[in-house]
Amino acid sequence: MAGHHARPRATPADRSSLRLTADEADWLRHGLELAARDIEARIPGKQIVVTVHLVLFPEADFQAEGLAAALLAWAEEEFGLFARPVSVSFDGERNRFAFTW
């Protein structure tokens, strides 16, 4: 959130030792960054720590960008924020989803 200090990036692991890639962790971080100012406005003067203990997703048709959208949706629900518009469309030619933040 605003004013945070850069820390060495550790890649979280679950009990099975499966780890998020650096790209996946970056997309989770991006989702939280999209909500950070709204969270700070909703809970002024408090430090908020968000710890992601588990990430479940289907391996078929998975795109790391979806992690940002999922974390943003969680933050909106958890902190009672107004939904931030995120549009998702499918680019059939590239066989990928396109996210507009």
Characterise this structure:
It is built from two helices and two strands; from the N terminus they run ααββ. With 101 residues, it is of the alpha+beta class. A two-stranded antiparallel ribbon has the order 1-2.
Order of helices and strands: HHEE
Helix content: 25-40%
Main structural class = alpha+beta
Name the poorly predicted regions. 2-8
What labels would you give this structure?
10% strand, 101 residues, alpha+beta, disordered N terminus, globular, two-stranded antiparallel sheet, single chain
In terms of topology, how is this protein built?
Elements (H helix, E strand, L loop, with lengths): L21 H21 L22 H15 L7 E5 L4 E5 L1
Antiparallel strand pairs: 1-2
Helix pairs in contact: 1-2
In short:
This protein is 36% helix and 10% strand. It is α+β, with helices and mostly antiparallel strands and 101 residues long. The two termini are 18 Å apart.
